[in-house]
From TrEMBL:
Keywords: Cell membrane, Membrane, Transmembrane, Transmembrane helix
Transmembrane regions listed in the UniProt entry: 51-74, 153-180, 200-218, 230-253, 273-292
Source species taxonomy: Bacteria, Bacillati, Actinomycetota, Actinomycetes, Streptosporangiales
Membrane topology of this protein: Multi-pass membrane protein
Name assigned to this protein: YihY family inner membrane protein
Keyword Hydrolase listed: no
Subcellular location: Cell membrane
Origin species: Nonomuraea dietziae
Signal peptide: none
CC terms in the record's Gene Ontology section: plasma membrane
Amino acid sequence: MGSATLVPQTRTMELSADDAWTTLKQYGMRRLAHDSFVRFRYGDGMSHSRALAFQLCLSIIPGTIALVGLASVAHQEHLGQVLQQALSNLAPGEGGAAVLEILNQGARTRDAVALWLGLGTALASLTSTMAQVERGANRIYGMERDRPFHRKYGRAIILALTAGALMVAGFVVMVGGAAIGDALASVYQWGPGLRGAFDLTRWPVGFLLALASTSVLFRAAPRRRQPGHTWLAFGALVTLALWMTFTMGLALYTGTSGTFGSTYGPLTAVMALLLWAFLSSIALFLGLAFAAQLESCRAGCVEPALPDKGPTAQEEREPLVGAVGSAAIAAGRRLIRLTHRGGPPLSRDGDPGRPEA
């Protein structure tokens, strides 16, 4: 249960990119970034990011193995070879050999029923992933209840087949484009001109795919009336910027660190995938929090979280140091405060800025 404030819905007009830009300039980028993180934190964004990362891994791993196997069963060996080479090139350290061995086992599997079941399992996991996006988005927007079961998962299936699949495709094209290009050039005997054209177009195509699909996901996932796609594109841009930063940082770390691959050995690719999925989920919900806080400011509700009704500082310290120790700490803080004239008086629990009764 989160404690983020409820974002008021805008019903009288359709908010556009111009409205978002005006609100952003009035509110201030630094303040908006800070309050967006506060909304992310008190909307249990980190917990939902962990759950989303788990569901994402459950959909990627069996789905990839099933696709390679089905390509072999359907006598599309070239497609299977492209997938195998691209994924083995993307895997860091010793994980590439382990990934290649697993995919080869999938390619040798001739049981079409088992492969289709594996693909169905991946689709079910991806549907659950989209449902988790709705759950996290609702908490960040200050709503504690999701849609009814049939509406929630019916919408999740549609999002999994449309926005979710396109978003993953856009991310893969941008980050894994070099490995995919090498695999395509090797399997289909591409020349330098065709390979250069692929390298030139993969960035804008991948970026537009990811931006459009993320905006659609931001609009369709929360259980509320959302503003227009151009307004939500601001939050989607935050997600893409954070995602690129996290992904490049992880790639730099796994590529330059000599201990990461040696520590995990054949599990290097799995650990890298887990880290990447977790960081990607954080980027997604931070972008949602940015869009939510921007809309909340536009409606005049600038506080990102509900007031704290928890214990005072002295009440928190007392179980750790006892009543005597807590009183001594408060007295010491009063003494230090008295040496700095001009400041506000201290309360009995030692908190500055709260006058004594």
